[in-house]
Amino acid sequence: MAKKYVYSFGGGKAEGNAKMKQILGGKGANLAEMTKIKVPVPPGFTISTEVCDYYYKQGKKYPKELQKQIDDNIKKLEKTMGAKLGDSKNPLLVSVRSGAAVSMPGMMDTVLNLGLNDEAVKGLAKKTNNERLAWDAYRRFIDMFGNVVMGVPHDDFEEELTKIKKKYKAKLDTDLTADQLKEVVAAYKKIYQKVVKKPFPTNAKEQLMASVNAVFGSWNIERAVIYRRINKITGLLGTAVNVQAMVFGNMGKTSGTGVAFTRNPSNGDKAFFGEFLINAQGEDVVAGIRTPEPISDLKKEWPKIYKELNDIRIKLEKHYKDMQDVEFTIQEGKLYMLQTRTGKRTGLAAVKLAYDMVKEKMITPKEALRRIEGDQLNQLLFPIFDVKAVAAAKIVAKGLPAGPGAASGQVVFTADHAEKEKKKGKQVILVRHETSPEDVAGMDAAVGILTSTGGMTSHAAVVARGWGKCCIAGCSALNISYAKKQITVGNVVIKEGDWISLDGSTGEVMLGHIKSSSSPVIAGVVENNAKAKKSSIYKMFMQIMAWADQYRKINVRTNADTPKDSQAARRLGAEGIGLTRTEHMFFEGERIWAIREFILARDKEAREKALKKLLPYQRKDFEGIFREMNGLPVTIRLLDPPLHEFLPNEEAGVKEMAKRLKVSPAKIKELVTNLHELNPMLGHRGCRLSITYPELCVMQTTAIIEAAVNMAKKNIKVLPEIMIPLIGTSNEFDFLEEIVRITANAIIKKTKSKVKYMVGTMIEIPRAALTADTVAKKAEFFSFGTNDLTQMTFGYSRDDAGVFLPEYVEKKILPDDPFQTIDQDGVGKLVETAVKLGRSTRRKLKCGICGEHGGDPESVKFCCKVGLDYVSCSPYRVPIARLAAAQAVIG
Amino acid sequence: MAKKYVYSFGGGKAEGNAKMKQILGGKGANLAEMTKIKVPVPPGFTISTEVCDYYYKQGKKYPKELQKQIDDNIKKLEKTMGAKLGDSKNPLLVSVRSGAAVSMPGMMDTVLNLGLNDEAVKGLAKKTNNERLAWDAYRRFIDMFGNVVMGVPHDDFEEELTKIKKKYKAKLDTDLTADQLKEVVAAYKKIYQKVVKKPFPTNAKEQLMASVNAVFGSWNIERAVIYRRINKITGLLGTAVNVQAMVFGNMGKTSGTGVAFTRNPSNGDKAFFGEFLINAQGEDVVAGIRTPEPISDLKKEWPKIYKELNDIRIKLEKHYKDMQDVEFTIQEGKLYMLQTRTGKRTGLAAVKLAYDMVKEKMITPKEALRRIEGDQLNQLLFPIFDVKAVAAAKIVAKGLPAGPGAASGQVVFTADHAEKEKKKGKQVILVRHETSPEDVAGMDAAVGILTSTGGMTSHAAVVARGWGKCCIAGCSALNISYAKKQITVGNVVIKEGDWISLDGSTGEVMLGHIKSSSSPVIAGVVENNAKAKKSSIYKMFMQIMAWADQYRKINVRTNADTPKDSQAARRLGAEGIGLTRTEHMFFEGERIWAIREFILARDKEAREKALKKLLPYQRKDFEGIFREMNGLPVTIRLLDPPLHEFLPNEEAGVKEMAKRLKVSPAKIKELVTNLHELNPMLGHRGCRLSITYPELCVMQTTAIIEAAVNMAKKNIKVLPEIMIPLIGTSNEFDFLEEIVRITANAIIKKTKSKVKYMVGTMIEIPRAALTADTVAKKAEFFSFGTNDLTQMTFGYSRDDAGVFLPEYVEKKILPDDPFQTIDQDGVGKLVETAVKLGRSTRRKLKCGICGEHGGDPESVKFCCKVGLDYVSCSPYRVPIARLAAAQAVIG
Known about the structure:
Number of helices of chain A: 37
Strand content of chain A: 15-25%
Oligomer: homodimer
Structural class of chain A: alpha/beta
Strand order of the largest sheet of chain A: 15-25-24-17-18-19-20-16
Number of strands of chain A: 34
Largest sheet of chain A: 8 strands, mixed
Distance between the termini of chain A: 39 Å
Radius of gyration of chain A: 33 Å
Largest interface: A-B, 49 and 49 residues
Shape of chain A: elongated
């Protein structure tokens, strides 16, 4: 028996079904499926992807069985439709569309009205009793076929059309009469002949085979190949070709066309949602010349059709078990479905749909989890702008989406000013070149933060994310003048007090006040607001998180530096702290003076004196964190940044420091100069500092262990994990681990405490990953600092890469920003290597990740794959991480 | 039969030999060997390292056979010596020394005069007829035994001695009489009793066994364990213990002691070389109280002894086939050899010894190559300071040894000044904070360059090394004031015109003019000087290089940016260019203005216009290099540094640029600010520049290929290899490779040339190494840029690591500076991975190294091991690389 290459559908029967996407493509498989379940679909047939595969493997030849199968199917179609291809009386018109298993822009798309020629056009005119319609269809077909199949520039046709419209003073295409359209057809044919060097084919089968050829040919044109390479689409046989009888929505007052969603894609409500146009083709809905009517109006106008459509809606949803995005056409009172596919949706809708469908017993909780993307879940956590208001807003600049949510406020340029305005009850956005630790109170007072320099790990970005506050960083297009109290960006001038709006999820800065809605989830979960807890969104969120926790295997921790952040994170589901950055504690109030005194000190004794002042602050911080995390592990990283970060940058700061520490300003400047580094990212920081100044390590260990001992006395269960940062060699680790143990054990012994602690390291330097087996001899845990690891593995400075990274992502040199989604081939390989090597030495080595990637769904899945014990992310990313961790298990 | 643990030597017989270092230790094996070949050695025995091994494996117990074997050997020794341990009439005194197979500081060293007690001391006095000698020996023994074996602080003894000296108004120890020494002995015993809580042991065997215990115990004390860990000494069983009869060089006018080398260790001359002291013990030679006489005087004074010693010298050299460093003692006219070992030597001596011994047919050329270290060979290539003059010089600061050799000159602070003084015939040292491209002429005029900032890859360092010129960089202790025309360093002020001297091999900056000798090798090889070619050093050098080339398998190329450097390198044996840095060509004269115009350009058109000006310069440079390297491959790297390196730093430069390019200084400043990067090392540079500005890649490719075509027309064989730098992903490479090929092929086609070229990449980013299999799909060669690879693998900025790297090496956290010797465990692992992955895709992938490591012997050996095809180093390191490559084969 001959191999089957063509699959028919129509008349309630179909040879394919929805599961056959691999050989019928997505579109073909769904057309077959709809036919099978008795949804009215214009009949047709699908030429399988195996033909495409054969075509390329055999040097652009077709299987010999093919022509006959196509011919048979045309005959069948002609019979079903009672019309004949190319017939001058009752011509069958078809559409030809490509369709692979995965949607793939770049390939040949669609030819409509195929089958028209000088004879058939007359038949169509007669059949439809609409000469104008027939000739309009004909000229559109010549344009489409000429352009898509034969490569005639569309503009050539368009130019001619404009000429003729001018001649007859027609404003719109629709102003042209049938006779004028005949003139257009004649002119189009000439253009075709001129470019193709052959006359326009009058034989309908010839038209069809040329279109089929063009579809298969388009599978391997450069932009399609590049698209597949870039999107890593592999394992496909090729594209299928769908040939389907044309139906017309523009055949008069009993015809029409529309698009609809089976539920509301915007908020997830269980209500039919869509639009339709009477006497129109699909293209007219898209073109936007006429305003479509809401689908509910159909009920009044054509109650029968509406009922039929609504029944189909219910049928499709039941069948596909998901919200569908459908296209339909009504030809002279008869309804046809042209397409169905899973509908795109907002975050809120995604959550509600998944939740509702479980309640409706349509899907399982597992399936519900599979359907919610992390970014969609995220939309429930933060204020979001009103969609319409945003669409109308003027975007003036784009920066890095450093902190989540949406915020509108009046511009202020100093932290002090932000605090004052806040007290007056105003909503402000703090705009700075960059923020520094002194700005923290003002940052807290502002509803959003906007900076012109600094990257995703700048001070502003890190602080804002920790708080779940909206922040756009590194918006380099802004020209900020503190003196003039204004921002210039292009021709726009924004003055102090002007309203601007920030979209923290896109990095867009917009003019004016844009309405936004706040999140009942955060109010309920983090702020413990009773009213919010009664909201349906809150309940959905809690249910979905509960489902996620049933499935996930990996733990989710948080990166938090304060008791407040720790509390928020714990409420959002964090199961411990994966990273406490102790340096953030050095900036507040008096502390900065102690650390500056330390930097200025000439000898160990003076340094120790300065550190003594810091000790009680650090101890108190740790006590607060231990209290909040009672019973959960807390990883504390020893000092990481280079010391110059604690010194003042500006003249005024230098003077203040000189005065306070009783030295000359020149001395301070000299210090600043001496500590200046060409590449601070690769400089004297992390463990390198503690090796030079072991007293630093001693002070921090003392603070951690004393805090632990004090809390343990209050019956709080403390599980401190001391993390030594920036280890590149096992010798560095061994050197400091010894100091930590001696210091810690002495305190534990002296206080007769039973506190247990661990000592481990951050793996963030490629060399540490490559030699992880020796590092793990002494290190009890690894925490992957994938921010720095990405910087060093790629050789990208996160602060500077803004110049080329967006271009790289745009040119698809990189699939994603590697600082947002972990680069599995390079950085991931190092992580995997380190886990394997580390566990070859220490079988039960605890491994986690504490870079920003800990809150990125794809990265979380990668972490599960390589066997990490936990991921750690900023408090407000914890829910996403929980969801992603569940998805990693569910698959 | 009982296992043998103790090996005797003496009376012309020995149970061990030189090959038994593993179980007898180095010292014990050589004592046995000398005994065997009838060299007079005081008899004794060695307790093997296997006892040490047993001792630790069995919980600090000895094999039960041991005591008997020791007792038997003592008896044998007593018989040989005709004396008895602890005897009051004729006491046998012995020394006890540790000695592992590898010399290892940190362990217990030596106990002398063992066997003395209140009885034996009398016997010794009588036997030697020297009461003072006997009591002096006794008090030294108590001190040594107490301190070394029992841990009594040496200072406790010293304090007591000082007290007694004061009491008797004795200035020196030797001023004390026998009776006074008896008082010292009594006091010492009290100290011993007080600390040890036991009386000083009078039983000689007890003394001996306690000492043996102490030696074995010292094997595992912390500092010895750390020493072995740090120096990666593994596979040793333990230490041996050598017990040997004491001989005394201080028994009067017919006694004496000395140290000697069998040839001159300073220049390699075949002449006996050493010193001796009459009536003295070994310690006295070291103490330096009396001035020893040259060994030649022994000939006059004791011709018989001299002859005997000279015969031994010849015998030992013949036997060991290498220059020996020996110790001897003459006791009452009888000669004893106490030690022999391979003598340390200068570079010149190493070369001459190896060369001469081949000529004398003592060793093979292979063995000669094995014996010359790269640094020793290097000493032949550069001026070196007179050893004595250096010893007397005042070192005022230490910087990085950035350029080789030695230089003395008068201080100048500007490049212009250097040129002027040079014209006057003066020798000057150019001192700058850092140098920049405008300083090149002045740098050429100076005999040496000294900078206060910048690392081993700073402008000054790279340029100087290329020229083989002495340079010290990053000497941060210097406070240079251009305004005051002086350097302040501590209390020292160095003014313009003052003489200073630089040792480029140590980084030491010294005051005053120090004599140095220049290198006939460079004069002969590079400068083609006929007279120099007649020198013996030149001949030796050429012979040794010829031997090396016979054995080595890896190619040696050079890093050269100019025809002049290419010529020098080729004469020194380079077999091609592994790295031409095109950016160095951008600085000279008019070129800098063209590149600055490029940077300032607003659009592609303007950029191309600027590049057009650069094209002829680049083409001409490449033509010159191709001409010099006729027939050899030339690897040319596309632009690498970030663009801001081409902009002026200072106000004057900004003004000049503004004037020249007809824009406002504010505009230039804005440009400088915009291009500023926080971590330029990880910024917008390398291939990232060419991806942003593909026209840059087009211009450089055009220059390379046009130059190649032009030279090919002149019958020069050109083999260009175009290298794309800083690749992190295969997409980057593929993107640029296509541009290179399109550009190059168009030129080749147009000119109908047959030039062949390769396109490859520098592997210097960890990610490229980790994904080398995909990079190698298109890349035809890999060149490892181990400078940057080391920076990123360790996370060290070479410019900034000066703050902690020296400390790291000192604390042995790192075994070596990883920028000098490749880090095999980390960076090396990446190199090895990349070679394997790359060749898994492209079997014959050409792999080389072009970082500074290409000129480091250990690194070259590593490169051979991992299968690289070539190493490439700066021109003046080529000979070292050739030697190291031969050694890698010889083993």
